[in-house]
Every structure is written in C-alpha cells, then in structure tokens.
Amino acid sequence: MDRFLKENSSREMLLSLFAEAPVAMVVLMGEDFIFQAVNKLALQLFGKDEAIVGKPLLKAIPELKDQKFPAILRKVLDSGKTYHGHHERALLHRNGELQEAFFDYIYSALRDADGKVIGIHVIATEVTETIRAIQEMQESENRYRDLILNADVATAIYKGEEMVVEMANDRMLRVWGKDKSVIGKKLKDALPELDGQPFHQLLADVHRTGNTYKAEEDRVDLVVDGKLQTFYYNFSYKAIRNISGEIIGILNMAVNVTEQVLAKRRAQENEARIRSIILNAPLPMVLLRSEKLIFEICNERNSDLWALPDDVVGQSIIERFDEHLNHPVIAAAREPFLTGKPSRLWEYRIETEEGETDRYVNYVFHPLFDAERQVEAVIGTGYEVTEELRIRRQLRANEEKFRMLANSMPTIAWTTDRFGNVEFFNDKWYAYTGTDSDGTDDNDWLSAVHEDDRKRVGKLWEKCVRGGSAYETEYRLQDKSSNRYRWFLVRGIPLRDENGEIIQWIGNNTDIHDFKMLQNQKDDFLGIASHELKTPLTSIKAYAQVLEKKLRKTGDDKNADFVMKMDRQVNKLNSLIADLLDVTKIQNGKMQYTEGAFCMGDLVEEVVEQLRHTADKYRIDLVHNDKADVYGDKDRIGQVIINLISNAMKYSPQNEQINVTCVQENGQVTICVQDFGIGLPDDKQDKVFEQYYRVSGDKQHTFPGLGLGLYISSEIVKRAGGRIWVNSVLGKGSTFCFSLPTAGENEVVS
Ligand code: ADP
C-alpha cells in the first residue's frame, strides 16, 4: 500500500482525495477483510464510525454475515477479478435499525509489488432512493394497467405511430369481437375491417397533433361473431405523453351505444311513419302533444272539417275552446293522458269559429306512450257521421211509422230474425193473447196456439225457417179475454238481402174464424143438400129410363130422344152432385176407399175406350207400356183419369186431339193427359188443385163446372201415395199428370 501510494502521488493528497470522494470508498486488507481505510461517505453508508478501522469486516459490520457480500469479496480476493454490483440489496444496521438499502459498487483487487492480491478496494454508491423511485413508478404503472384492464369502459392503448395494440381490456376485446391474440399486433392487422373506415386517419391525427378526439354515436363496422356488423359508439382518442411531453401512444375509450342509437332511430322512424300516416289518411286525423293538447300534426281533412287556420300547428286546442277543460272535445282529447286508455267523442256537432255547423263526427283518441310508458301525445281519428245520423234518424222515423202502421192493422203482425226468433209483435197480438207487451213471452208464442195444432204448426215453422220457403198455415189461437179459440190464417215471408240471404221474416195472422165457420156451415149445407138431391134425382133417372123404353116401344122415337137427352142432363146433374158429395166426404174424412192391386195400363185402356164412345168428336190417342200393378181404389183412380180426360175435352174447344200416355219407370206409373186447348197461366198452375178453384174472367161461363174435379182427383191420388201436377202454356195446351208407386213400392197400403 505504501509503495502504491508512493508510486502514485503524495500520501496527503491521496488521503484527502479518498476522504472527500463523492462516493463511498473502503480499503479492506487481508483474508479477514480488515478495514484499512474508510471514507466519510462509507461510514455514513454503513451507519458506523471510525472505530471500525482496523477491524475485520464481519466484526465491524456483523449484519453482513449472512448476506452475499463476504462471498463475493472472497471471490475477488481469490481471483483478482473486479466485480460490479448493480442495484444490489443489502441489510445494514443504521440509525438503530436494520435497514434495507440498494447499492451500485465495484470490488477491485489490491495487489502488492508482486502482483499478489492483498486486499480489496471498494467503491460504492447508495441507489436506494433511485430504486424506490423505480419501484414506485412500476407500482403506479401496474395500478394504471389494472385500472385500464378492469375499467367499466372498453379501453385500449395503442403505442407508437404504428398503433400497436399494447393493451386492451376484456370489454374492448368484446367490442372488437377478438381475443387476446390481437395484443401486440398493429391495429390495422388486428382489425382489418377498419380499413376504409375513418379511424386510422383519426388516430394518426391525434398522434400528430396531440388533440383529443371525441365522437358520439359514431358508426363502426366490426367483424363480430364471424360477421360484419354495424355498431354505434361514444369514444375518445387521447394522446399519451412521456415525461418529456412526447406523444408515445393513444388511449382509446369506447362505450357501446348501439341499442340507444337504434332505439332513437326507431323512434324517429316511428314518428316519421306516424306523420305520414296522419298526413295521408283518408280520414280527419290529428296528433296533439302533451296535456296542453298542442297541435303537432293535423291533416288537411281535419283542418277542413273544423275550418282550422293554416298556422294551427303549435297552437293549443284548449285555447281554441276558450280554455274550457269541460268542453266535450277537450275532455275527450285529454282523457288518454289521465287514464292511459283510448277515449271517444261521439256524434259531436262540429262548431267552427263561425258557430255550429250541420256536420257530425265521431272521434277516437289513442294515447301514444314514451319510453317511460307515459302518455306523451294523443292521435285523434275522426269519422264524419252526418249522413249516417240522417239515415238513422230517417230509419227511426220509418220504424216508428211501420210500428204505427202495424199497430193500426186489424190483423196480428210480427217479424222475426233470420233464425225465427220474434223481434216484433204489434199491439193486436198482446191484446189478443193477453201476453206481456214488454216482449218477455214473445218467443213462447206456440203456447197461445191450440194444442191440437201446436205440433203441426211448430214443425212447419221450423221447416220454413230452415229451408227459407214461405210459411202459410191455419191454426187456432186462444183469445185471452174469452178463453175461446179462433181460427187464423197465418202467413210469413222471408226478407232477403242483395245476396239472397234471409235477414228477417215478416208475417201476419188474419182472423178467419167467422169465414171458417161459414165454410163449415156451407159444407154441411152442401152435404145435406147434395144428399137430399140425390134421392129424387135417382128416381127421376129411373122414371126417365122407363119412359124412354116405353116411348121407343110405341115408336115415338122423337119423344124418346127428348127423354134420352133429359137422361143425359140428369147424368150431368148426378155427377155434379156426386162431386159435391165427394168433397163433403173428403172434408169430413168419410170418403170410402176400396183398395186393392190392379193393372194401371188395363184401367187406362178401359177408360179411354169408354170415353171414345161417349165423346166420339175427340181423337184420343193412347200410348202405354205399363203392365205393373198399382195399389189403390181402382174406381176412384178411374174417376181421376176420367176427370183429366173430360177436362182436356172441355178446355179444348178448338182442338180435338188428346194424347194419353201411361209409362212405367223407376217404380212409378205415370199417366199424362195432354191437350192443345186454352192452357193455364204460370201462376195458376198450382192453384187448380185447390177446392172450388175455377178458371176466372170472361171464360167462367164458357166452361161450366164447380171447380171440384181436380181437388177431388188430387185427394184420391194423395191417398194412394202418389202425386199430381200440371205443365201448361197459356193458349197452347196443358198436360196433366199423376204418378203412383207400383204395388210393393206403395207405403200407404194399410
Ligand atoms: P171445373 O173443371 O169443374 O171447373 P176442375 O177442378 O176440374 O173444375 O178444374 C179446375 C180449373 O182448372 C178449371 O176451372 C180450369 O180453369 C182449370 N183446368 C182444368 N183442366 C184444364 C185443362 N185441361 N186446360 C185448361 N184449364 C184446365
């Protein structure tokens, strides 16, 4: 050491240099590292005083025992190689406590003249403060990183001009629809879909100028879940600077506002749609905002209807009606604001600034709700009902007229719905039946019908209602004032709409009791009279036949012919009386039938043959293919055929041809008698089978008769289970037919 000092400088100078050096300096000698020299800074650093000089290292600073330094020193001593310690940690007893400290130091070997290592020169600088500062910085950086990673907002940091994704929290990764692999990549590689969108340019601008960029509800298209989708974000790009103020990166924060933007857009679209609907509606429509009922949209029809000025939008409807909240229009328009439900204004007579008009409207006000389900506006839709009201009033007047008319009628009048449920009876019904005029018993009308008629009438009414055919019948109704039954003729016809669907039934019951009684009397009288006439007539006929024979014997042919003619007239009289008797018998159900099976073809042939003799003026052609038997009263059926052929003769004064056919087909034998006579009008064809029905008008006397033949025939045919009908053309001729089931088919057999 002495030599070293001698060789290098003056001892004092070196000592002073050593003592005052701005670094801690120590000289340790020998195997035990005895403190040879320690400068001030070194003493401060070890927290010791001069007393350590001359002491071995571990004696002087025992706390170093279990630390790495003695071993390093040993290595340097053994190898002679300098050792650099950087930011190394040591524990030192300083100021009464064991302190942690950090050092940069150099251990270099001290050699003697022979180059042998004899000690170690230590130069040390304490860097505890620096290390602490670095630690703090790291902690703060970690905190910052954590802050970003756990932020509630999607956050990312891009570094450098290349915009390398240095950090992106999970939220940001979700925004991008990417995973952590994007970290460390350049933004344009991480999100290639941003190409063509403005973000790279914006980032470059922020990097260049340092001005923060903020965007609201900006559109960004990102590939999320494998497909390119559009999102809307509020986001910012903020420059990150280093201590020297240089821009080193960009902080990107973003909030997804797609839902809000879309909702807003939908709301805007809805509003536009509502506006267009209102403006183009074919009805008067208006949108009134807030409880103040401010006109927001008002279409032309609405303006015209209420004669509103052009600048009505923005005005309040309340002002228009002098602030009268009870005014029906205002009350109706405000109601949805109070109840949240639609309201209506019915048959309101419109008033304009000039006063009341003759126009009437119906309005419905519908609430429009905002996002908080509060009513923000009402839409009023109007419908002019002026014409409807006028018609309704007229209808009411007509109905009243009808009611009065129906009530003034001497007959019972009624209407039912299409299902036959009574809708109306005139007063006459209630007065006659004694039922309640409030209508409670209306549908129980069958109770007033005589019980012998009830079933038949009920069935018929049901059948007519179901089938839509006119209803006509006779029945007895009880007169409540006397408890007696009277006969009524009842008719009901269905009223149809333009499609032919029944909408109502209209009917009346006419009292025919007296007429019916008279008819009975007449029938009784006819029965008695014809019966009484028959006996003397039979005698006259017998006398006439005797007289004729006698006159012929005496050769008085002239008088015999007179008597024969008289006999023919007696025959006619006889047949008329027979008809009258038959009718009374049918009426009383006393007609006698002697029934059995017979061949219709033979019967027709027989009858035709007989008539050809008696009326040789006519040509009667017969065609028949029938050999089947029918079942019935042969004489009565013969009477039917005679009647049809006699009528054919009687009603064909100009044409002598008569065709008779008898055809068997499908289990029926049909006989038709065709003439080429006067024929029948269409509307009379069904009527001819009714009792006493006769050809009318000026022909009445041309063709004598009682109008009973066809009635009796139809009764006989019906009795035999057949039917009778006519086809006729007025002026051209008629074909009367009847058919009977062949024997075995006849169900009437009894
Ligand atoms: P009558 O012949 O005694 O009047 P009928 O009952 O036989 O009674 O006939 C009823 C009505 O039917 C007749 O009055 C006549 O108007 C019509 N009639 C019947 N047969 C014919 C026919 N062959 N041609 C045209 N009209 C007929």
Would you kindly provide a written description of the structure presented here, covering whatever features stand out?
This protein has 750 residues and is α+β, with helices and mostly antiparallel strands. The protein folds into six domains: 2-132, Beta-Lactamase (2-Layer Sandwich), CATH 3.30.450; 151-256, Beta-Lactamase, CATH 3.30.450; 262-384, PAS domain (Beta-Lactamase); 390-511, PAS domain (Beta-Lactamase, 2-Layer Sandwich), CATH 3.30.450; 517-586, Helix Hairpins (Orthogonal Bundle); 592-741, Histidine kinase-like ATPase, C-terminal domain (Heat Shock Protein 90). A hairpin with a 3-residue loop joins β26 and β27 (733-741). The N and C termini lie far apart (167 Å). The site of adenosine-5'-diphosphate (ADP) has 20 residues, from α20 and α21.
Largest sheet: 5 strands, antiparallel
Helix content: 25-40%
Tally of extended strands? 27
- CA(first)-CA(last) distance: 167 Å
Q: CATH class of the largest domain, please?
A: Alpha Beta
**Strand share of the residues?**
25-35%
The spatial strand order of the largest sheet comes to 2-1-5-4-3
Sequence-ordered SSE layout with sheet pairings:
Layout: H1 2-8, H2 11-20, E1 24-29, E2 34-38, H3 40-46, H4 57-60, H5 69-79, E3 83-94, E4 97-111, E5 117-126, H6 128-149, E6 154-159, E7 164-168, H7 170-176, H8 187-190, H9 199-209, E8 213-224, E9 227-241, E10 247-256, H10 258-280, E11 285-289, E12 294-298, H11 300-306, H12 317-320, H13 328-339, E13 343-352, E14 355-369, E15 375-384, H14 386-408, E16 412-417, E17 422-425, H15 427-433, H16 451-467, E18 471-479, E19 484-496, E20 502-511, H17 513-553, H18 557-588, E21 595-599, H19 600-614, E22 619-624, E23 629-633, H20 634-650, E24 657-665, E25 668-675, H21 709-719, E26 723-729, E27 733-741
Bound molecules: adenosine-5'-diphosphate.
